[in-house]
Structure formats: structure tokens, C-alpha cells
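Retry 2 of 3 after timeout on previous attempt. Resubmitting C-alpha cells to design endpoint.
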């Protein structure tokens, strides 16, 4: 049975969805922008800093599912302009082991929540016996 989770350190989603849905095998994170993160407005417009802030929060959310970024199997990145991809990639590469980068998609989305330039969505494989919030 899936478990639906909203992180109390994030603002309540303004969309009809959850921050995180997990089952015995996977953790699925909704897309995050810095506009979804308290005080994230201060970095809007700097794609590298937006990416850094988002990945910090993604890492925190994955911990709630007993995972870490190394467990990510699929990452979806949305940018408002493809010219931002190099800035995003420079930070993104700091967070993952080059020998085991997750599968990834990068698309252009002309408008993102709150005027952000970057949105990131992650699916991670939960390790066997994942805790603390193991629903099964």
C-alpha cells in the first residue's frame, strides 16, 4: 500500500498532490522548484543556486523514505531555457556519483511555479528494509 507524505518543513502543496509517495520498492517525489521551498525566492533567477537548493531538499525528502540520492533511478529536470542546462549540470554533477548517474530527462518548460527557472522530479529505488517510514 503506498504511503503519501507531505514534509512539514515545506509549504503545503498548492497543487492536488503529495510531496512524496512511497511504497515498498520506490519513492516518487513531486517536482520541486525553489518557489516550493521556504525562503527559496531569494535565489530565483540563478539556475545553479536554484538547482543546489532543490537538490538539498530532494536529499532531505529521500531521507524520509529511507533513501539517499545514490538510490535515484530517474531524474526529470525542467528548465525555462535550454541555455540554463550547463549551469544546472555543473551543480547536478556534484550530487551524484559519475559511475552511477540515474537515467535523466531535461526539458524546456516556459513557465515554472513561482517564476523559478528549474524544477526537479526524482524516482528512487528504496533499499530492502528501508526505514523509518517503510509502509510494508
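Retry 2 succeeded. Sequence:
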Amino acid at each position: 500500500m503506498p504511503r503519501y507524505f507531505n514534509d512539514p518543513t515545506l509549504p503545503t502543496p498548492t497543487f492536488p498532490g503529495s510531496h512524496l509517495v512511497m511504497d515498498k520498492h520506490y519513492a516518487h517525489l513531486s517536482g520541486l522548484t525553489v518557489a516550493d521551498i521556504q525562503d527559496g525566492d531569494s535565489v530565483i533567477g540563478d539556475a545553479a543556486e536554484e538547482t543546489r537548493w532543490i537538490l538539498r531538499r530532494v536529499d532531505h525528502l529521500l531521507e524520509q523514505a529511507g533513501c539517499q540520492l545514490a538510490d535515484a533511478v530517474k531524474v526529470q529536470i525542467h528548465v525555462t531555457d535550454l541555455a540554463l542546462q550547463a549551469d544546472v549540470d555543473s551543480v547536478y554533477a556534484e550530487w551524484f556519483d559519475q559511475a552511477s548517474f540515474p537515467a535523466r530527462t531535461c526539458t524546456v518548460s516556459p513557465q515554472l511555479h513561482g517564476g523559478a527557472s528549474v524544477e526537479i522530479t526524482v524516482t528512487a529505488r528504496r533499499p530492502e528494509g528501508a526505514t523509518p517510514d517503510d509502509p510494508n
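Attempt log closed. The mean pLDDT is 91.
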